[in-house]
Amino acid sequence: MADKIIVFIDLEATGLDTSRCDIIQLAAVCEESVFNKYTVPQQNLTESATEVTGFRVQSGRLFRRDSPVETVPIDDLLTSFIDFLRSFRRPVVLAAHNVMRFDAPVLTRVMKKYDLFLQFQQVVSGFLDTFLLSKRLFPGISGYSQVSLVRNFLGKSYDAHNAEEDAKMLQELYNVWRPDQSRVMANTFKVNEKYFY
């Protein structure tokens, strides 16, 4: 892991079905570097996604909690995300809470859909699931949702389900936990593992 850099990510989507949901917001954080972009989804948000994230689309524009949000086309969002990851000049591990069950399958599918998966694979060597990591580091604590972990370890609440805030809080959590290399490796998965397809 010493030759790699961990970038903390989160994405907000139109729903929880990883086989078809659209990305709405993608954010990434690595120390002081921040990437955060929004796109207007092609499909409708589920009621629960609107409730949880505060996003809605009206007349082709994206709003979060009734404020308009500046958006870019999805292919621009994806290519600028890859460019952001390339800027670190070494292989990247993308860390997200529940990455194996949500962020990785969605990102992998969408990168393939826009013929960007090869470029993505060239910069991303794997995914680190901080949900699995937290369960192994702290067995028996009361909750493993990111909101619970932030409350327990950082003593604060935050604007959850805003991808940028989620990614920033995850980085803070990780810095407090300071997991050893073996724990990190045990919860890191290669990008091209069959798991995603």
Protein architecture, described:
Its EC number is 3.1.11.2. GO terms for molecular function: double-stranded DNA 3'-5' DNA exonuclease activity; metal ion binding; nucleic acid binding. Belongs to the exonuclease superfamily. TREX family. Residues 5-183 form the Exonuclease domain. There is one protein chain. The chain has 197 residues and is of the alpha+beta class. The chain contains eight helices and nine strands. It has a six-stranded mixed β-sheet with strand order 3-2-1-7-8-9, with helices on both faces. Strands 4-5-6 form a three-stranded antiparallel β-sheet. A hairpin with a 2-residue loop joins strand 2 (23-30) and strand 3 (33-38). Helix 6 (146-154) packs across helix 7. The longest helix has 15 residues, at 163-177.
Topology:
Layout: E1 5-13, E2 23-30, E3 33-38, H1 47-53, E4 55-58, E5 61-64, E6 67-68, H2 74-86, E7 92-96, H3 103-113, H4 117-123, E8 124-129, H5 130-137, H6 146-154, H7 163-177, H8 181-186, E9 188-190
Parallel strand pairs: 1-7, 7-8
Antiparallel strand pairs: 1-2, 2-3, 4-5, 5-6, 8-9
Helix pairs in contact: 6-7
EC number: 3.1.11.2
Family: Belongs to the exonuclease superfamily. TREX family.
Domain Exonuclease: 5-183
Instruction: Count the DSSP helices.
Output: 8
Report the CATH topology name: Nucleotidyltransferase, domain 5
CATH superfamily: Ribonuclease H-like superfamily/Ribonuclease H
Domain unit count: 1
Strand arrangement, major sheet: 3-2-1-7-8-9
Question: Runs with pLDDT <50, length 5+?
Answer: none
What is the percentage of strand-forming residues? Answer: 15-25%
Main CATH class: Alpha Beta
